[in-house]
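Work Package 4 report. The design task specified in the project plan requires that, given a folded chain encoded as structure tokens, an amino acid be chosen for each position. We show below one input record used in the internal validation round.
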């Protein structure tokens, strides 16, 4: 700044105007950058919100399906499973009883073998 008696010269004023104009241009550029950034952020947030809404809808649909499946399991499938379990228990009991009866028959045959042969052959073995 050239000062002549504390007064600014024309060249000083021109430089000041250029500097102020540059600052104004920079501020306008920053405002535009912020506006673009704000617009992009708003678009991004809108996309995120849309996706969250889609996920919420899908989650609700899945919960509804799972609820229906649970009802079907409780109403239709559980009684059948319980009945088959009872059949299995009865079958195991029957197999156990058959095993005991077979063991008893084997013991009887072994214990009375000589008498059985005698009755079948009509004579006592030597």
């Amino acid at each position: 700044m050239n000062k002549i008696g504390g007064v600014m010269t024309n060249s000083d004023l021109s430089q000041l105007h250029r500097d102020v104009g540059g600052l104004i241009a920079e501020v306008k550029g920053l405002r535009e950058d912020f506006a673009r950034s704000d617009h992009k952020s708003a678009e991004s947030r809108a996309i995120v919100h849309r996706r969250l809404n889609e996920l919420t809808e899908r989650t609700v649909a899945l919960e509804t399906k799972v609820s229906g499946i649970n009802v079907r399991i409780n109403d239709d499938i559980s009684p059948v499973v319980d009945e088959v379990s009872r059949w299995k228990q009865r079958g195991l009991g029957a197999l156990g009883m058959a095993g005991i009866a077979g063991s008893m028959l084997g013991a009887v045959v072994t214990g009375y073998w000589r008498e059985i042969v005698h009755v079948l052959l009509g004579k006592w073995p030597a």
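The chain has one domain: 3-121. Validation will be extended to a larger panel in the next phase.
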